[in-house]
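[Q] Does anyone have a clean structure-token version of this?
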Amino acid sequence: MKFNILTLFPNMFPSMLGESLAGKALERGDWSFNTVNIRNFATDNHKSVDDTPYGGGAGMVMRPDIIERALLSVPDQGRKIYLSPRGKVLNQALAKELSQEENLTLLCGRYEGVDQRILDAHNFEEISIGDYVLSGGEPAAMILMDACIRLLPNVMGNADTADNESFGENINGLLEYPHYTRPAEWTDTKSVTHSVPEVLKNGDHAKIDEWREEQSIKITKKIRPDLL
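[A] Here you go.
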């Protein structure tokens, strides 16, 4: 899988994606990335990439002609995505869908955003990582990339891991049940002792599965009832 990233800050990549499982997968060649510095396609002496918005208002808007030149420098664009707070919210199902693509081109906006015409002319999809606004699209792009990369074959040690996590198929799209490990008895700094639930220690996998399902439903009902 290859990511083409149109950005004013190419040095922000791969950042966290160069570490842990994603970093090892990058070294193996399971995925790759190509950063395109949009500023390199400006034509004036100041390398300007933005201008004042028509109709007035605060901030500056990134120009469509400069972004288009940057975009056309990418030979295999694949699906084109603009990271935007007004876009479709990224969820596990969408991440799984995107992870099947060979090429993704991610446009990272800055300032007040990009001229609408570049999005319309080149059929960009708009995707949001949540109902909040960032200083630019780069952190959102990294989150989208991470969500896709971890779903690629061989990236996670156990192929069933993703289906047993929150929103996974094996837990019916609900939130994940709690996890516990050693020690079986743990006393915190307030001298309160916490025990691992007994059902998890008895080796009865049918009862463990039942308990985990109950916990998933309970947690989902409390935190994300919309998923039920």
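[Q] Thanks! Anything notable?
[A] The domain at 2-149 is CATH 3.40.1280.10 (Alpha/beta knot).
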